[in-house]
Amino acid sequence: MRKFFLVVSLCLIPLAPVAARAHAFLDHASPLVGSTVPAAPHDVVLTFTQNLEPAFSTAQVTDSSGARVDQGKAQVSGNTMTVGLKSIGPGSYKVHWHALSVDTHSTEGTFTFHVGGH
Fold first, then answer.
1. Of 68, 62, 67, nearest in space to 95 by CA
2. pLDDT in tens, 14-71
3. What integer pLDDT is reported at residue 19 of this predicted model?
4. Alpha carbons 61 and 9: distance in angstroms, whole number
């Protein structure tokens, strides 16, 4: 019986990387994750490793007090999600995103960026 499980396990190992690539992971963002920008951006742009399902992918941006500073629903085009920002000043901001790839796998995460000398 142990041999059976060993053989099955060894057969499944090559499939593991395929499953890992089946999610839309954040590839890069503008502003950059953890960056400090000199002037307030007009929007946050998130680029993912796979195309997204627009109806179920979201992004919210909040200030240091937790108040939302985004302009509402994010726009999705292919593997890019863009959310507009209200007029923001110097300070720290948190981006929380939820992405549903077109193959129905879901990921989410948060990161911060800073405006000005903080």
1. 62
2. 544 444 456 899 999 999 999 999 999 999 999 999 999 999 999 999 999 999 999 9
3. 42
4. 43
Question: Which domains are assigned to the chain?
Answer: 22-115 (2.60.40.1220)
13 vs 5: CA distance, rounded Å: 12
Distance CA 118, CA 113 (A): 10
Cα separation, 48 vs 101, whole angstroms? 9
Can you tell me the distance from the alpha carbon of 62 to that of 50, in angstroms, rounded to the nearest whole number? Answer: 25
36-37 sheet: strands from edge to edge: 36-37, 106-115, 91-100, 58-63
CA distance 51 to 35: 25
Q: Is the pTM of this model over 0.90?
A: no
